[in-house]
Amino acid sequence: MSHSLLQPVQYLNGIGPKRSKIIGRLGIQTVHDLLYYFPRDYNDFSKIQKIAEAKTGDSITIQGTINGIQNRVARMGKTILEVFVSDETGVIAATWFNQPFLVNKFRIGDRLFLHGKVNSYKYLQLLSPEYEIISDRQAGGSGWGIIPVYPLTEHISQSQLRKIIHAAIQEYVDLLEDALPLPLIKKYNFLPVADAIRHIHSPPSMELLNRAKNRLVYEELFCLEMAMALRRYRIKGETRIPFKAGANVDAHIRNIIPFTLTKAQERVIYEIREDMKSDKPMNRLLQGDVGSGKTVVALYAALIAVANGYQATFMAPTELLAQQHFRTLQKFLSGSQVRVCLLTGSGNATHKKNVIAQVSDGGIDLIVGTHAIIEESVSFKKLGLVVIDEQHKFGVLQRLKLRKKGASPDVLIMTATPIPRTLSLTLFGDMDISMLDEMPPGRIPVKTFWVSKNKEKAAYDFIRGEISKGKQVFVVYPLVEHSEKLDLKSAITEAERLRNEIFPECKVGLLHGKMKSAEKEQAMADFKERRYDILVSTIIIEVGIDVPNATIMVIEHAERFGLAQLHQLRGRIGRGGKQSYCLLFGTPKTALSRDRLRTMVNTSDGFKIAEMDFRLRGPGEFFGTRQHGLPELKISNIFHDFSLLQKARKDAFEIVCRDPSLSAEEHQKIKTKVVEMFKDRLDYLL
Q1: In the chain, domain spans
Q2: What is the pLDDT of residue 624?
Q3: Predicted local distance difference test score (pLDDT) of residue 625
Q4: 42, 146, 160, 579: which is deepest, by most CB within 10 A?
């Protein structure tokens, strides 16, 4: 990258220190940042119409001359600015309400373009139209026709930002060098990068805009997939002693598992066993819907490591989930010689110190725990397998930290949040993927209902009837964004309301994140032992809590949850072979919220739900891609640009296969660009 492209923007003509601070809020520090600050949309004003053609309700673009300006105060102190514009066929008023400062933008005699919706009051009007003064354009604006629309911050307008970017393009764009290897540019007939940047900011036509966007989207996705390929080949390039996992080991493990595995579990165990027998470290993602039997598969993998004289560790995102996994694994291993322990952040300091010492000297085979496992004080004698549950709750760097506790250990990452294929290629493009797409026999699908306000009483009567039959109920309150206190108050208030007003004859418990670990454990134990009929909880129960007798899940304000969360919560019930019910209480105010609730009612397929969630919320929000160590995408959208993503992935992996260190001269520039893209996340690549 040329030194000039790294020049701070404050030294560009017309910017200076004050304006550079404003632009800095948009993430623009250098000339390069400015050139790569892409429009979020475009307005096509290339078709100019005559004022005489204007019809009420139409959106039109006109070109004319200002022949009158009126800025007046109406009733209630409202200001109305009217700018009268004429062409050879007539006159129209451009009207703005409560924007008196705009009067300084216009002068009689100025020629300008206007685009807006036609309204008719006493005369034809364009209400709050977009405008471009033609003299601005001649002084170096972006030009009229297809106009870029940028994300803005306070104290800078579209026309000001367009001028700044236009000036930067004029002076600096030819300093940009193509990072893409020449064979790829020829293969796809891509525009040179300088032309692509020119046309993305000032498109001469829709065709050239599309070609520019195509080139820049591909390049961004290619860099992303190149990082995935480099990481995958680095991990696969490591060697270690292969595990023995023959018929003898397999028979011993199966003796510990007290039930017949599903075909899906058998298939995934085969994939994992082959990985572990290899001299290359396993790096595998295990996807499976809630209740599909991931824990047993992970146990099988852990026991292969233990049978070979290695330790295995099982990391979960919350203490509740870690404790549940510990109890489950203890139950499986009760008749074996496998030594298992629990390590979390809370609890007795002396006990914790003792556990850490045993882990260090090899006295423990299987360590179950939370983030406490990756603390510096924890070291393993011989770590052979890392299992991470509910991976989206951890950042990628935390996963790497755990992996570095051993010498190239096998890694198995599990998720009950189904990930659409479009997203798994980017978030987990460096991993092999296994799917548990079959439920164990005896699981009865949960019936789901959307309960509107006028049906709440009937729902409460139904719940009362189920409780009288000995069933139990979860009632979940959503997290209120940015306010744990408000969330906590909601759950406590709801518990009181249910206890005193709705179900006075029932025993109502409470569980929330602010409770001490021992209190949470006690609340869950009491619910499991049926000391409560109803447990009111916050989102804390989203993952891992298993109460077979709980057959009803009530989700209050269901419209506030994402689809993935709703599906996770629903998965907490239906585990005991009895018909279970999920009741979504909610009054959604948007079409998006209504679509979410309808999707939940109509399907229980986690992968369909994940795909819908991805469509509705977009990649940025689908459980927060930032924590996965991925850079923010500036122009591409991995859902809408999936076909380009697939091409970029194939091309990137082919290049890294031929040149794993990107040492060839033709790959130097793309290597630099990938490192630049991941500059704050280099641990991801190393």
Answers
A1: 47-144, 247-278+293-415, 447-603
A2: 47
A3: 45
A4: 146
42 Cβ contact partners less than 8 Å away, ≥ 6 residues apart: 146, 147, 148, 149, 203, 209
Q: CB-side exposure of 507: number of CA atoms within 13 Å?
A: 11
Q: What is the pTM of this model?
A: 0.73
User: What is the fold of 47-144?
Assistant: OB fold (Dihydrolipoamide Acetyltransferase, E2P) (2.40.50)
Which value, to the nearest 10 degrees, does the dihedral of the CA atoms of residues 648, 651, 654, 658 take? -120
Neighbours of 339 (CB within 10 A): 15
At 408, list the tokens: 């190239």
Q: How far, in whole angstroms, is CA 258 from its chain's centroid?
A: 38
Query: Taking a C-beta distance cutoff of 8 angstroms, is the pair 422, 638 a contact?
Result: yes
pLDDT at 630: 67
- Cα–Cα distance for residue pair 569/291, rounded to 1 Å: 12
Coil/strand/helix, residue 318: coil
End-to-end CA distance of the chain: 22
Q: Please check whether the two domains, 247-278+293-415 and 447-603, share a CATH topology.
A: yes
- In one-letter notation, the amino acid at residue 253 is I
- Other C-beta atoms closer than 10 Å to the C-beta of 173 total 18
Collect the ranges in the chain with pLDDT lower than 70: 1-3, 135-144, 391-400, 418, 421-422, 425, 427, 442, 479-489, 541-545, 616-630, 680-686
Name the burial class of residue 102, with classes exposed (0-12), middle (13-18) and buried (19+) by CB atoms within 10 angstroms of its CB: middle
Alpha-carbon distance 254 to 331, whole Å? 14
SS3 157: coil
The architecture (CATH level 2) of 447-603 comes to 3-Layer(aba) Sandwich (3.40)
In the three-class reduction of DSSP (H, G, I as helix; E, B as strand; rest coil), residue 653 is classed as helix
| CA 37/CA 57 separation, integer angstroms | 34
C-alpha to C-alpha distance for 542 and 569, rounded to whole angstroms: 5
d(CA 49, CA 581): 59
> In this structure, are residues 388 and 367 in contact, taking their beta carbons and an 8 Å threshold?
no
Taking each continuous run of H as one helix and of E as one strand, the counts in the chain are 23, 21
Residue carrying the six token digits 């096998």:
410
Q: At residue 642, what are phi and psi to the nearest 5 degrees? A: -65, -35
* Crossing angle for the helix pair 319-333 and 517-528, to the nearest 10 degrees: 60
Q: Does domain 247-278+293-415 have CATH number 3.40.50.300?
A: yes
